[in-house]
Amino acid sequence: MNTLPDTKAPHESDEDHLHFFADYEPPTDDFMADTLTGLSRNQKSLSPKYFYDQKGSALFDEICRAPEYYVTRTELALLDQILPEVAELTGPEAIVIEWGSGSSWKIRKLLDGLDNPAEYIAIDISRDHLKAAAAEIGRQYPDVKVGAICADFLAPIALPPEAIVSEGRRLGFLPGSTIGNFDPHVAAEILRKAAALLGAGGAMLIGVDLEKDEDTLLAAYDDAGGITASFNLNLLARMKDELGAQVDVDAFEHEAIYNREFHRVEMHLKAKVATGISIAGQEFIMAPGETIHTENSHKFTLAGFQEIAKTAGFEPEAVWRDPDGLFSLHYLTLP
Q1: What is the pLDDT of residue 20?
Q2: Which portions of the chain are predicted below pLDDT 70?
């Protein structure tokens, strides 16, 4: 597929490259309220959605390039390998719908590999990021109708009438290990909502991280260069800068553990010494070794994930994994 260079003329706006932009006005995140709620729990927690300020997003890009973090490079290599088969399964003039307007490397690979895709629709809760990311794709793929929907993909979503420009198959795309950030019952609900949006005859290409030895897992979430540690600790820095919290960031350290019972890697911020967090007139005291739980990343067997997909109405059509069995891509279809 012919694409334009990744350049933007001074007079261009993002809207110039969007076929449509639908704003469903998802609720605005309340960093303060969520922080106070999380720190009040017996197991203190902070929501991972607050990782991604400008600094956090840049750190995550560095994580994706870290030698220990196998997910991104393994998935990209898998995509290169399987795209001819994906194109054959999907057919021509597909309407590609991506949940989370994330890495443009992956969506570019998919659009380049499909047979004359008609439309690309990005769904994301972050309005400014969504509009800019979708417009970049629109600029680079002038033959593809590019649209964007600002919405929380945990909520039901309907496509606006102007979205459908082709009778081709609707192909959902959820790359990376995003689905693993949710508890399995929530992952099933996300897939059910995706199935409703894709409709009869739709399909989904989804990345799923696999169970593997603990050393490989823990290294991926606690790299030797300390990038993931900086990424995690940045949550505390955000609390100081944006919420006026009094917190000694140096009193905490990053910790990654594998929870065998729930088949997931957990990220925590662990107090190295007795310390406290003062915020909005409230004081939260932490004992040495006490943690703030910041993220889960569930790992699956092939069969285990396929069972979750079936409960959401999908049928497993094809599955691919790398030679080392680190990561998988699943092609799911709807009757």
Answers
A1: 95
A2: 1-15, 102-103
Residues 135-188 have pLDDT tens digits of 999 999 999 999 999 998 888 899 998 888 889 999 999 999 999 999 999 999
Q: Which of 185, 133, 182 is nearest to 6 (CA)?
A: 133
Determine the length of the chain. 335
Count CA within 13 A, CB hemisphere, residue 158. Answer: 2
Q: What are phi and psi of 28, to 5 degrees?
A: -75, 135
Using CB atoms within 10 A of its CB, is residue 234 exposed (0-12), middle (13-18) or buried (19+)?
Answer: buried
pLDDT score at 12: 58
CA distances from 127 to 62, 98, 142, 150, 318 (A): 23, 15, 22, 6, 34
Task: Give the C-alpha separation, 319 to 69, whole Å.
Answer: 22
DSSP code of 94?
-
Which residue has tokens 């680190």?
A: 326
Within the chain, all domains assigned CATH 3.40.50.150 are found at: 67-156+164-212+299-333
Q: State residue 70's pLDDT score.
A: 97
Strand ranges (E), 70-139: 95-99, 119-124
CATH no. of 67-156+164-212+299-333:
3.40.50.150
What pLDDT was estimated at residue 35?
97
First-residue to last-residue Cα distance in the chain: 30
CA distance 288 to 282: 20
pLDDT value at position 103?
Answer: 60
Ramachandran class of 84: left when φ > 0, alpha when ψ lies in -120 to 50, beta otherwise = alpha
Q: 254 φ, ψ to 5°? A: -75, 140
